Amino acid sequence: MNLLVNEIFYSIQGESTFAGLPCIFVRLAGCNLRCRWCDTTYAHKNGELLSLEEIIEKIRRYSCSLVEITGGEPLLQENTPTLADELLSLGYRVLVETNGSQNIDLVSRICHRIVDFKCPGSGMHQHNDLQNITRLTPNDQVKFVISNREDYLFSCNLAETIREKTGSEFPILFSPAVPDLKPKTLARWILQDSLEVRLQVQLHKIIWGTNARGV
Fold it and tell me: For the sheet containing 141-146, what is the strand order?
């Protein structure tokens, strides 16, 4: 049982409500989308085929109980759910970050599924699987990467729809696509509209630099 892995590393979690915590990242290779502002294009194709046992062995090298499975798009690989289940059985807390185009119920609802619904500015918003809205649980989080005012309004409308359909108070994250949108501009919009969303900046880029990899 194998997975195509781009990189495995240990760093500070830079996004979601887990930001600031030490975390082991398993970045899987391959993605079905080509977002205009993507900062992990190197993971689209490049990867090493590793067995489940080899991946677990690499994870165990670090003294950390938080693991994020990311990409690329991790749900494209059929063995991703098995990896998540194995990590859960070993006592890890598992985050799965997905681009919103795949059925999130492919992985256990015990995982914290971070669903990155795409805005128009990404050029990929037509690929959003809106059925994922009904699959969300209070254990999950929703993220929007916002590059302009159109994206902001799109995110506001979809966030309202999510709240209406789920009734759940899970985190909704608004993240500026830097350098297209300054964090303070997005902060002002959120405050002006009294939105109950969380402003998120990419903490890892503040710590390690914009183009650093494996951190």
Answer: 48-51, 2-12, 22-28, 66-70, 93-98, 112-117, 141-146, 172-176, 198-199
The pTM is what? Answer: 0.93
> Rounded to whole angstroms, how far apart are CA atoms 34 and 27?
17
Q: Left (φ > 0), alpha (ψ -120 to 50) or beta: where does 167 sit?
A: left
- Radius of gyration, CA atoms only, the chain: 17
Distance CA 153, CA 13 (A): 28
Lookup result for tokens 């506001």: 156
Q: Model confidence over 109-137: pLDDT tens digits?
A: 999 999 999 999 999 999 999 999 999 99
Q: Are 144 and 158 in contact (CB under 8 A)?
A: yes
Picking from 134, 78, 65, the residue whose alpha carbon sits closest to that of residue 107 is: 78
- Cα–Cα distance for residue pair 201/211, rounded to 1 Å: 15
Domain ranges of the chain: 2-208
AA letter at 34: R
From the number of C-beta atoms within 10 Å of its C-beta (0-12, 13-18, 19+), residue 24 rates as buried
Q: Please tell me the CATH superfamily of domain 2-208, with its number.
A: Aldolase class I (3.20.20.70)
